[in-house]
């Protein structure tokens, strides 16, 4: 049995090496909640809440996640016992939504569980790969700057490049990139920047030979994506529209997408991500693991998830040095010859750098069961 005795929340702010721009805005600094849990045996597990400071990606923010953890999820977890990390979503089911907050605390319990089993997170999740191919994301900017950045990515060995697009910076931009890199595995991410009325423009993507177009239409839509996919040869990949196994099932049954981007934080945790993996394997839907401009904690856990067999496309898991001068883990995530080695030591396979974590933290809150049990 797993009994969580203590939960510590670290409110962290880290400065990106350079601003990162999408169709929804620009990020220069990144807030996180790092979740540390300790069980009755003294083992420690780590998770990360990857919501953003404002609700531009989902309705959750760091502030709302902090409230939900403190007021509801932590009291629930501290006053129950669990046999397996998959019990966590069941215990939190009564609380609607708030998937990123749930994912952060569930990930920490997965880390503890793997350490208890003396196995790597890869092994307890069912992963089969010793290394995974690494992809990378190019944020929006001046065309010449983007071409230089993509050349750097190619030189660093990244096996797939994703380009953020938006109206006014889309077809022309992608054509210039394709002209400069005729054989590069290339995809575009719209972050819901288009509407179904843009179908004639989006059909021009078919001439650019993209791996996929990610989330072209509204974040809460599946039906319009179905209509769009009927008119496109370019595969549609859904991201924001897929928040659960049920969402994935509906999208596949409707024909709304051909590929799914799985982000554990977006779907509520690793348990739900595993369910989507099982479904996608049964229905031969290719998967890849997305990123949220995360620290090495989520990055290491995403590497373990991406080692599962249906993750057949290079994901957004890049090196720690892509975003950070210093990460909060050691060893940091590295890309060598286009691949990331999957950690094999017990748990998530990397250690948290307490000194770095505390240096980036402006608030640390500790909770025990005595805070909630009279």
Automatic annotation (TrEMBL):
Mg(2+) binds at residues 189, 214, 239. The active site is at residues 164, 263. The keyword NAD does not apply. It catalyses: (1R,6R)-6-hydroxy-2-succinyl-cyclohexa-2,4-diene-1-carboxylate = 2-succinylbenzoate + H2O. Keywords: Lyase, Magnesium, Menaquinone biosynthesis, Metal-binding. It holds the Pfam family MR_MLE_C. Converts 2-succinyl-6-hydroxy-2,4-cyclohexadiene-1-carboxylate (SHCHC) to 2-succinylbenzoate (OSB). This is o-succinylbenzoate synthase. It comes from Bacillus pumilus (strain SAFR-032).
């Amino acid at each position: 049995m797993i009994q969580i005795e203590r939960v510590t929340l670290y409110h962290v702010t880290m400065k990106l090496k350079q601003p990162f721009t999408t169709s929804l805005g620009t990020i220069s600094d990144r807030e996180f909640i790092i979740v540390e849990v300790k069980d009755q045996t003294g083992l420690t597990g780590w998770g990360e809440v990857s919501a953003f400071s404002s609700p531009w990606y989902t309705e959750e923010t760091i502030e709302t996640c902090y409230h939900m953890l403190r007021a509801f999820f932590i009291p629930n977890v501290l006053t129950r016992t669990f046999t397996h990390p998959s019990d966590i979503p069941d215990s939190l089911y009564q609380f609607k939504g708030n998937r990123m907050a749930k994912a952060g605390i569930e990930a920490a319990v997965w880390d503890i569980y793997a350490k208890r089993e003396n196995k790597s997170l890869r092994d307890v999740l069912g992963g089969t790969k010793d290394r995974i191919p690494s992809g990378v994301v190019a944020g929006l900017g001046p065309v010449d700057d983007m071409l230089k950045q993509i050349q750097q990515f190619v030189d660093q060995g990244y096996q797939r490049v994703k380009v953020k697009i938006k109206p006014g910076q889309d077809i022309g931009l992608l054509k210039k990139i394709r002209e400069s890199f005729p054989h590069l595995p290339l995809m575009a991410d719209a972050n819901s920047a288009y509407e179904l009325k843009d179908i004639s423009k989006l059909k021009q993507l078919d001439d650019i030979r993209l791996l996929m177009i990610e989330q072209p239409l509204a974040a809460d839509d599946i039906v319009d994506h179905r209509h769009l996919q009927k008119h496109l040869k370019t595969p549609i990949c859904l991201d924001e529209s897929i928040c659960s196994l049920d969402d994935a099932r509906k999208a596949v049954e409707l024909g709304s997408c051909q590929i799914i981007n799985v982000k554990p934080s977006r779907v509520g945790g690793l348990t739900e991500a595993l369910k989507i993996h099982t479904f996608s394997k049964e229905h031969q839907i290719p998967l890849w693991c997305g990123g949220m401009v995360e620290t090495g904690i989520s990055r290491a856990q995403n590497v373990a998830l991406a080692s599962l067999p249906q993750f057949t496309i290079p994901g957004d898991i890049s090196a720690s040095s892509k975003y950070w001068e210093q990460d909060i883990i050691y060893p940091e995530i590295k890309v060598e010859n286009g691949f990331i080695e999957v950690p094999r030591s017990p748990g998530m396979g990397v250690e948290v750098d307490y000194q770095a974590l505390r240096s980036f933290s402006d608030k640390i809150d500790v909770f025990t069961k005595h805070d909630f049990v009279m």
